[in-house]
Design brief:
The chain is mainly alpha-helical. The protein has a domain of 75 residues. 52% of the residues lie in helices and 11% in strands. It contains 13 helices and six strands. The strands form three sheets. It has a two-stranded antiparallel sheet with strand order 1-2. A two-stranded antiparallel sheet has the order 3-6. It has a two-stranded antiparallel sheet with strand order 4-5.
């Protein structure tokens, strides 16, 4: 092994978790005279270096954890499988596989490159939308300020948790347009409603509509006496339109028959993210959340089997 001489040291029994349940194997262990890392030929031969569960068990566990929590996976396998990993073991497998997927960012593109479009396909549409996931990390407090007196510990600006987007379609653009109208003309004003409706139609039907919208925002922000809070809110909405105007050519999208609504992609966001990540009481670390989402993405895109075959082949080669 790498030009070094390894000598037989001992027989080392180890318990492995197989699809038939726990199994103890006696393995020959080799090591150099200088000591250090051991070499176990049997582990290398069947791809079990550093593993306690066979590849079949790992697949079953990870397939389940893409849909259920580790404790639910533990309970499920306790009832219907001969192998019974603990929730801690499930978590460890998830972390290891998530790290492996992160180390192979080329995998999704390679898998997609081998796929053929279904017969009759004329247009491929890519949609983008955001889904909020609650993270177990500090973040700014949101929402209305509390109306009751607060102690020093309660009145801080940081919250122990925060929401992050796990992202522009026409519906969300109109939400930002509505907020801009409210900042310019006041909540519930007739002038604001008219201005909103005018630019809502223009965004949907006119070329370069965002350019005209930005000019209108700048004009009215100079003409009207706005409070500092309304100016701040308006600046936020103006930045949104300025930064995303290249994605808001809704007239061209409609003429080409592309969807400008968020229904399909929002449904995908709910199915992929919300159902698994936003259950009551859930808080996520960024790595932990990403590991589960990576697995769930392969599951819900019906690419799990292809991904797993790649994993087995690459893991066997690395071993």
């Amino acid at each position: 092994m790498k030009g070094e001489v390894y000598r037989w040291k001992m027989v080392s029994p180890k318990e492995f978790l197989t699809v038939g349940g726990p199994m103890v194997l006696s393995r020959s262990l080799y090591q150099t005279d200088a000591g250090g890392e051991c070499y176990v030929p049997l582990d290398v031969a069947w791809g079990m270096v550093g593993q306690f569960a066979t590849v079949e068990v790992r697949e079953a566990v990870l397939f389940a954890v893409a849909q259920l929590t580790p404790r639910e996976v533990e309970a499920l396998l306790e009832k219907c499988a001969p192998f019974h990993p603990s929730s801690a073991a499930v978590h460890a497998m998830t972390q290891e596989m998530g790290q492996w997927l992160e180390a192979h960012p080329e995998l999704p593109e390679e898998i997609r490159g081998e796929e053929e479009s279904p017969a009759g396909t004329r247009v491929l549409v890519a949609g983008l939308d955001g889904v909020n996931v609650l993270l177990a990390e500090p973040g700014p407090k949101r929402g209305r300020p509390a109306e009751r007196p607060q102690g020093a510990a309660e009145a801080g600006e940081a919250s122990p948790t925060c929401y992050k987007n796990a992202m522009v379609d026409f519906y969300h653009a109109t939400e930002h347009l509505s907020k801009a109208a409210e900042a310019l003309f006041g909540k519930g004003s007739e002038k604001g409603a008219q201005w909103y409706e005018k630019y809502r139609r223009r965004l949907q039907r006119k070329r370069h509509a965002v350019t005209g919208l930005l000019r209108s925002i700048d004009y009215y922000s100079q003409q009207r006496k706005l409070s500092s809070s309304r100016r701040e809110a308006l600046a936020t909405e103006r930045t949104f339109f300025e930064n995303n105007q290249d994605r808001m050519d809704y007239r061209r999208f409609r003429r080409r028959g592309w969807p400008i609504g968020s229904g399909p992609v929002e449904a995908a966001g709910k199915t992929l993210v919300k159902v698994r990540m936003c259950r009551s009481g859930m808080r996520w670390s960024r790595p932990g959340g990403q590991y589960v989402l990576s697995l769930r993405t392969y599951l819900k895109s019906e690419r799990w089997d292809t991904m797993w075959q790649r994993y087995k082949a690459l893991a066997q080669t690395a071993g």
